[in-house]
Design goal:
alpha+beta
Length: 62
């Protein structure tokens, strides 16, 4: 895992991105526990909410 990676668990969703400049990946853990089917493109409202959480949690490196 990258030292810049971020992940969030929100309800049935698990989201991950390798770096703040990379796209957010989204998985529904109730249907895809192995996280093989990225649902980010079909759930823009969830991605928008998660993007806010990622932005609030991000701290720039020195």
């Amino acid at each position: 895992m990258s030292p810049h990676a971020q992940s969030i668990r929100l309800d049935q969703w698990w989201s991950y991105r390798h770096h703040p400049s990379k796209p957010i990946q989204l998985y529904d853990l109730t249907e895809d526990l192995a996280c093989k089917n990225d649902l980010a493109k079909t759930n823009p409202e969830v991605i928008d909410r998660l993007r806010q959480f990622f932005a609030e949690a991000h701290i720039d490196s020195e």
